Protein: Precorrin-4 C(11)-methyltransferase
Amino acid sequence: MITFVGAGPGAEDLITVRGLKLLQTADIIVYAGSLVNPELLNNKKENCIVYNSAEMTLEEVMDVMVNGDHEGKEIVRLHTGDPCLYGAIKEQMDWLMREQIKYEVCPGVSSFCGAAAALNAEYTLPGISQSVIITRMAGRTPVPERESIRSFASHQATMTIFLSTGMLLELQKELIAGGYSPDTPAAIVYKATWPEEKVYHCTIDSLARTAKENDIKKIALIVVGRVLNSEYQRSELYHPDFTTEFRKGRKEP
Ligand code: SAH
Structure:
């Protein structure tokens, strides 16, 4: 069996219990070496064979996994965070489907959750934002025009921006052109949950300068929105007046 496993955002104890068990029993592990914490590999069994996909093509990765599966091996494909975001797993899953090989996915903690923890932030605050936009700037991978940062910015929802640390001047211009005020709170979270994690609070118009001053060039997530520092309304759910399925409130619904 082949399992795509989310390794979590960095800290070696932020993989799921299921993911850890899969690592401990795998005969072959193919891990995304550019971002997965190598300490996680300490959990492998003695004769497990490890490949670093950062040095491999899709064809080479698939060769290892397909041949391993034909030999009846347990295979873990270890992706950073949760594999559903910018993980390039669809092309691997489609390949396996064509070869009629069964696979499963074990989710992981995405780095946008790791970043929220580092910031002690709640991305959804009543009266401020009830939505989180997960996006990126266009790089070598294009982003459809209808999903431009500028168009998303017009919603003033909380935004978590992946894969864009090298383009912060452009990012801040796009956010402002889309309607965010330049002094909207923002944060750069470098290597969230890793021992070397760093958090920089700033504003949209100082994103690029903050990154430059602190020499942050990659492995960072940008978080933008008034949830990072703002007045908000308390939740309805825990309000004494509010009736829920589990608790009768002071006021009739
Ligand atoms: N599937 C991953 C994202 C992979 S794309 C997930 O769910 O998190 C790689 C990008 O994710 C990086 O460029 C960076 O923007 C972000 N990233 C991954 N790990 C991170 C971490 N620990 N801290 C901050 N950003 C991280």
Q: What stands out?
A: Residues 2-106 form a domain with the Cobalt-precorrin-4 Transmethylase; domain 1 fold (CATH 3.40.1010.10). The first strand starts at residue 2 and ends at 6.
